[in-house]
């Protein structure tokens, strides 16, 4: 009696248990619908793929399908690769005998909307003698096109990662707004002379030309004149103007020259003296931005004060 109860209990448990052939139930494995089915993983006739117990093979197959990795090997980086990984992309760094860091950066992609303007400006700068085409240079800086109000572009070299870090800061006193308008106070008429291209009127020596090579979509170009983007430009140009206009009744800062006069005759005499001096040194003006016989100074937007009343203001950062 006791034995029959045990058999009945075991039979009931087997009928309610999950089938190992299909991992479903409740039914006996001998009564399973997939009793004679062939497993697609292990090719055995005892279960289906969903209930396959070949775990190592199953895991390996899943990893292959997910990662699709055929071979993985860890190698140690070379010294050159370690240097490049710590720098910006496409940056090549070499140190020469003079302890200068020579840097060459590949050309950046120019937007198609202004690419034609950039090409025209490069050709124009070559034609007027600002740039010259070169085939090779140790130094190379990318360009930054800047849109101008006359629907053209100004091409500036991005020297902040190449030349500027290697330059020694040049200290030169720059005039303040108070000093500028103190020299102009009490006068009736004034003129604002805008220097065309500003820095591009200062010639460079051969050694400096090598440093200011730019990398463009059209190839390598080298500046023959002082380009925009050099950290010492303001100090160099201000010092040059101070020497040229020394002794003349002007107030000037970077690319703007202000001159005044109480009477028309005095004003015209000062204007003639300044123009003659600039012509002697080959300094060109931009007539579209020059103002004559004006009573307001529009170059410094933060000021915009009347010279007649001597109103002082703050000089907007250039």
Automatic annotation (TrEMBL):
Residues 71-84 have a biased composition (Basic and acidic residues). Residues 170-297 form the Reverse transcriptase domain. InterPro entries: DNA/RNA_pol_sf, Retrovirus_Pol_polyprotein, Rev_trsase/Diguanyl_cyclase, RT_dom. GO terms for biological process: DNA biosynthetic process. The lineage of its organism: Eukaryota, Metazoa, Ecdysozoa, Arthropoda, Crustacea. It comes from the Eukaryota. It comes from Artemia franciscana (Brine shrimp). PANTHER family: PROTEIN CBG26694, PROTEIN NYNRIN-LIKE. This is Reverse transcriptase domain-containing protein. Residues 71-90 are annotated as: Disordered.
